Model the fold of this input.
Amino acid sequence: MFLIAVKFPTGISSSQKPILTWHGKLLHKAWISARMIITIQTLSEERKAWDMILSGEPGIKSMEESDFIMVTGIGLISGGLDSILAARVLQDQGIRVIGTSFVTPFFGAEKAERAAAMLKMELRVMDITQAHLEMLQSPKYGYGKEMNPCIDCHALMFHEAGKVMESEGADFLFSGEVLGERPMSQNRQSLMNVARDSGYKDYIIRPLSALFLPETLPEREGKVDRKKLLNIEGRSRRRQMELASYYGITEYPQPASGCLLTEPGYARRLKELMQHTPILESRDVQLLGAGRHFRLDTGDKVIVGRDQNDNEKLLSMKDKTDVVLDVRDYPSPIAIIPHGASKESVAKAAAICVRYSDAPRDKEVAVIYNRGEEKLTLSVKALPNEELDKIRI
Ligand code: SF4
Done:
C-alpha cells in the first residue's frame, strides 16, 4: 500500500491553504512514510488530486482512511504574542492546533478568544475556579512577586489541557512559554516541574524554546518535526517581534499578564482575606475587585463602592446573607458586609458609609439597612478619618 502526502507549497500562509479532506475529515501530511507527494494550491487542484487518488493512478494501489495521520496539538492559549506564535509555528507544520483557555475570578478568556479567531483555531474555554482556588491556598512552589503562583498555575492548566488531549484523541500539548523569559516560572527547572506535575511530562512541547529542552514523545514519534521548532531564550522580545512580522501578525496584546494575582493592590487584599478565611470562596475573591475594603475589630469585612460602577458590581455580587447599607437622604455609595454581621459591625459600617456620602460629617443621618427581607433605619454619624485609616485594607 502506498501512503500519500499532500504538500502545500511554501510561501503561502496556512489560512490560504486548501484543506484536503478524506470522507469529510482533515487530512494530515504523512510526510515520513509517504511515497508520493501531491502538491496542491487551489481547491480545483484538490479535487483533481482526489480524482487521481480515487481512480487509482498508477502507483496508487489502495488507500485506507487509517493511512492518514492527523496530528493534533492542544495548546495553552493566553492570547499573548508567545502563545500565538507557538500555535502558528505548529500550524506551519500542518498540525491541527486546538487552544484551551481558562476562566477564574482572576483572569478570563477574552484575549484567547481574539487570538483563536485570528489563528482560525478552535478554542475550548474552561472554568477552573474551584481547582485554582484550592491550589492558590497552598501552592507547592509558592508565589511570584505578588500572589501569583505561576508554576502551580501552569501545571494545573496543562493538567486540564491534558484531559482535553485525551478526550479529543489529540497527540500532544504545547504552550508559548519561553525559557528564561520569566525568572521564576520559566527557568529550566520550573518548566520541567510544570511538565512533571501536570501528569503529561513527555507530551508537553514549548515550540519557541524546544531546541533548548529535552526531546518529547511526539517529536520522537515524528509527529512534530523538531527541526522546525525554535531556540528562543531570554527576556528580549526581539525574536518574537521578528517572527510576528514574518507571519504578518500585527495585532496582539502587549506583554502584561492580565491576571489580577499579579496586581499589588489586589494581591494585598487577597493575602488579607486568606488570613481571615480558612477556605477561599469564589464570590469572596470576586468582591476583592470592587470598592474600598475595611476590616473591623470584630473581624467583619466592609466594602464601600467608590463610584456608580463599583456600586453596581457590588450589588450584582451580593447574596441574601449580606448586609447592604445606603444613606437615605444624601447621595452615597453603598456599603456591603459580606455574610452578615453583629450590631456593632453594622453600626461601624454605616458610619463608614456616611463618611463617603455627601451627608454632613458632624450630625447623625439616616442609613437604610437591608439584609434579605429585613429592612431597618439606623441613625449614625460619619466615622472620623483617623479611625478609617486604621482599618483600611
Ligand atoms: S500570571 Fe496568573 S494566570 Fe498567569 S500563570 Fe501566573 S497565576 Fe497563572
In short: The two ends are 72 Å apart (CA to CA). Confidence is low (pLDDT under 50) at residues 1-41, 58-68. Residues 86 and 176 are 5 Å apart (CA to CA). The first strand starts at residue 4 and ends at 7.
